[in-house]
Amino acid sequence: MTIREQTEEQEFKMFSPHAAFSRNSRGRDREEPQCDIRTVYQRDRDRILHSKSFRRLKQKTQVFLIPEGDHYRTRLTHTLEVSQLSRTIARALRLNEDLVDAIALGHDLGHTPFGHAGERALDMVCPQGFAHYEQSVRVVELLEKKGRGLNLTWEVRDGIRNHRTAGMPSTLEGQIVRYCDKIAYINHDIDDAERAGILSESDIPEESRRIMGDTTQKRLNTLIHDVVRCSEGQDRILMSEHMERAMRDLRAFMFRHVYRNSRAKSEEDKAVRMLQELYQFYTGRPELLPDEYRYLMNEKGEAKERVVCDYIAGMTDSYAIHVYKELFVPKAWGFPPIDGLPRQE
């Protein structure tokens, strides 16, 4: 018996009957030999972790565009926080921690540069529309590995696609990530907003602080315990009605005071215009796209507009700015050097 098979046997002994067992996965679109050490969900987690799109998350906006400070969240640190919270709940409920980890690490792979401003920009110009959760699935099914995708299991892709508020993952593990995505971003965005001087703890509604706690640590602890307590032994992941209402109210408060705050969003209009101008440029000159994207059009038959969105969505904040400058900002001619002064470029 291989190490993988031993692990699969242990899952049946240790996990809740409601868990997604590795051996019972609905599988991959393309069949492939099993690993002798890792389960299918462990392999999915590792494939995501080693992907290029995962590495690019470190330079993609979470809330604050290009902040001046080292401690603001990026899309990568948000992803890691979602993963950590999700694993805590999964372990407490005796569910499949490896599946939770894979879904959490992959849930935002399709996010654009400049956060939801970038998503909005592409959704406005792309005829097929643009949504980051669908793009995340497109990344793992097609865009990674030069058109081959990562060939992940059905359960991981289902969890990635349905992590949004309106979604409902088929596995309890996916439902955990759906909750933890919101738990993580509401609380770490409060922390970042306080760091930026946009909020103070006293600004948070008194009812929210009374129910969930008056610090980020207390709120996280309260919400995680509530999910575990309400979901134990159930065939779905639940939060108590009063706690879910309190979280919705706090999320609405964040939209009013942070996500639409003029200081936090002062550069968003520029980012939107920049990405839309990049879209217009590359749809008019698709021959200038990198080889792997031209391959998607010429060999895979993908629509030009969708492929241009793929390219732009995959950019980091800094790379999008770099490309825009290269295409649209004129470069100065060199001047003769002046004695004692550095040469102006």
List keywords for this structure.
single chain, 345 residues, mainly alpha, Hypothetical protein af1432, 2 domains, 16 helices, 0% strand, flat
Task: Walk me through what this model shows.
With 345 residues, the chain is mainly alpha-helical. The chain has 2 domains: 41-259, Hypothetical protein af1432 (Orthogonal Bundle); 270-328, no CATH class. It is built from 16 helices and no strands. It has helices at residues 3-14, 40-49, 52-56, 75-92, 97-106, 115-125, 132-147, 154-161, 172-195, 206-212, 216-231, 241-259, 268-284, 291-298, 304-313, 317-328. α2 packs parallel to α5 (97-106), α8 (154-161) packs across α9 (172-195) and α10 (206-212) crosses α12. It starts with a helix and ends in a 17-residue tail after the last helix.
